[in-house]
Amino acid sequence: METRKVQLTGGSTYTISLPKRWADEHGIEAGRELSLEPNGDASLVVRATAPRNDRRATARIGVDGYTHPNLQRTVEALYTVGFDEFTLSSSGGFSTAERRAVTAATAKLVGLEVLEETDARIVLTNMLGNDGESVRQSVLQLEYVTVWMHRNAVTAVANADADRAAQVIERDDEADRLFGLVNRQFHRALRSMQAVEQLGFDRPTLFAYYTTARQLERVADHAERTASVARRLEDPTAVGSLDDLATAAHESREVVTDAASVLLGGGSVDQAYDAFTARDRLLDDLDPLDRALHDGSAPDTYLLGLVLDSARRTAEYGGNIAEAMVQLSVQAQND
Questions:
Q1: By CB count within 10 A, which of 21, 147, 178, 265 is most buried?
Q2: Which domain does 35 fall in, by range?
Q3: Domain for residue 27, yes or no?
Q4: CB-CB contact of 296 with 239 (8 Å)
Q5: Tell me: the pLDDT tens digits for 203-214?
Q6: Which residues, 6 or more positions from 250, have their beta carbon under 8 angstroms from its beta carbon?
Q7: β-strand pairing of 35-38 with 85-89
């Protein structure tokens, strides 16, 4: 890092000199206009090329020889890192199966659509704007979907309700798509200070939204796992600790919602500390329940042990959200 002293020119203008090596590398000469981007963290970004608000990040990548799963992973990666438009090219042309693989990947990502297709290339474009409101709304919707999935998965277990379990499993893709959108915005902000400014958040707040979304997506995964267990149960009522297990799962969900309410519901940081307390108490309570299931002989005992493990993980994910809320609070108090 280099330092410069601020000079006063003409009695009213502050000036600093630019590093000569940097200026030479970017063709900076006298009279050249530079772009200055003030940021909320007291930094000032100097760019050799003036940014345009309507500039779209584009990419082009050759995918010759890619397997169908790797084609899908490439589409997901290009979307996640923040490209607004990208082109996949194949010198030998795309087969019908390869086009289906690209289309399947596109269907999993919010706002992504096929813009153009030829024999040798596929162009995809993001149709959504890049703003903070879309991040917040996505996390709010993700919380709603996750809580719905978790509540109904536990009900499906308690009643061995395969139909309800199937409904839960179907919604996991929705949770994945919502997290994917938040993940994309987060990675855009890592690549560009201008992207942070467009979102309207400071970086600690954006990270809190990302962390919350990541943990909610993991809770949704465990809700899907719990629902999958419900489809395999024979007679869960034969397990004497079923009611205690359902209560524990409910309490694990409350840890998550209480912690997330600090960011999403305007709650105070005290709710995050309360979530820590509830998490620790629940984890202690799960140990004797775990032993009871381990010692049981009913056919469904092992499967209900998987549900208990998901309840434990859910409580831990709620604790991770609470930790992010406390970190955000202490940063805000000392900025």
A1: 178
A2: 7-47
A3: yes
A4: yes
A5: 889 999 999 999
A6: 154
A7: unpaired
